[in-house]
Amino acid sequence: MPDINSIVVLTGAGISAESGLRTFRAEDGLWEDHPVEEVATPEGFARDPALVQRFYDERRAQVRAAQPNAAHEALGRLDREFTGELLIVTQNIDDLHERGGAKRVLHMHGESLSAWCQSCNARHRWEDTLGDGPPCPSCGEAAMRPDIVWFGEMPYEMEPIFDALSACDLFVSIGTSGAVYPAAGFVQQAAANGARTLELNLEESLGSRNFDESRLGPASTLVPQWVDEVLAR
Ligand code: BJW
Fold first, then answer.
1. Which residues does residue 82 pair with via DSSP β-bridges, in sequence order?
2. Residues with C-beta less than 6 Å from any ligand 1 atom
3. Is 41 helix (H, G, I), strand (E, B) or coil?
4. Is the pTM of this model over 0.90?
5. Residue 34: active-site member
6. pLDDT one-digit tens code per residue, 47-59
């Protein structure tokens, strides 16, 4: 088997499901109660800011109450013990990778515990509610919104992510449905540059056919097994 020197891991809502955080597109998912165009678009926020702030205030509280599970902890161990290049790109806005011990993490869709001032562009760590828009600690304007990438907005950190995808020899996707771009296209990008591609997901995803290998099951089982395999090489 060829050596592994550089790994990119992409994670989605499925890795945090066993920590009690709801995914988006399941039958009991977040979009069932909150239509996506209402809470995850800039137009929805402009239409009804109080509704959107309430949605993210509740999610922020849920994130703070959740604990990392065995899958987050296994990636934390990978980060500590894998001596090659590693980048964990998460679509998740929770901080469970960091609390599971991972350091090499990029949040491409923003972070629940961060607020962004639309007036002065400052970002602040934010653990409490945003409610009806408190003043920005930097400029004093009441223009703070959740620091979240909504549909139609540019995800964060695309340059380092594309650089890592073009240099990795293994791309692993964990707990994501493959419904949202640009993340859904990362597998093809990595494969085009010669990487092996592996999917770990509860069930077949929209992108399964693009992977060299798909393993089906809960992340809390599959991820520790895969990390053991990598570290045993
Ligand atoms: C388990 C498990 C267990 C369950 N163990 N697994 C037409 C074609 C192509 C693209 C577009 C198009 N029209 C518009 C676009 C672009 C658009 C897009 O993709 N739209 C699609 C709907 C088609 N994308 C954008 O607008 C993005 N920006 C953009 O493209 O900018 C332009 C650009 C140009 C060039 C380069 C780069 C950019 C922005 C997307 C923003 C997404 N934001 C959200 C909400 C914010 C975060 C939040 O509120 O939390 O991000 S949407 C939502 O979906 C959230 C997620 O991060 C994202 C992905 O969802 P995820 O994680 O995959 O969750 P689910 O629920 O879908 O799946 C969970 C999976 O886990 C399932 O498969 C389960 O089986 C599995 N699972 N339990 C393992 N225990």
1. none
2. 12-14, 17-18, 23-25, 29, 40, 91, 93, 109, 148-155, 158, 175-177, 179-182, 201-203, 205, 218-219
3. coil
4. yes
5. no
6. 999 999 999 999 9
